[in-house]
Amino acid sequence: MIGPPDLPAGLAGRLVLIIGDLMLDHFVIGRVDRISPEAPVPVVRFDHEEYRLGGAANVAHNVAALGGRVEVIGVAGDDADAGRMREALGRLGVGTSGIVTDAGRRTTRKLRVVTTRNQQVARIDYEDDGEVDGDVETAMIERITRLAVSADAILVSDYLKGAVSRGVAAGAIAAATHRRIPVLIDPKVPHVDYYRGATLITPNHHEAEAVTHMRIRTGEEAFTAARRFRERAGCDAVLITRGEHGMTLHAREGDAELPAEAREVADVTGAGDTVIATITLALAAGAPLVDAARLANRAAGIVVGKFGPATVTAAELRE
Question: Is 283 helix (H, G, I), strand (E, B) or coil?
Answer without folding.
Answer: helix
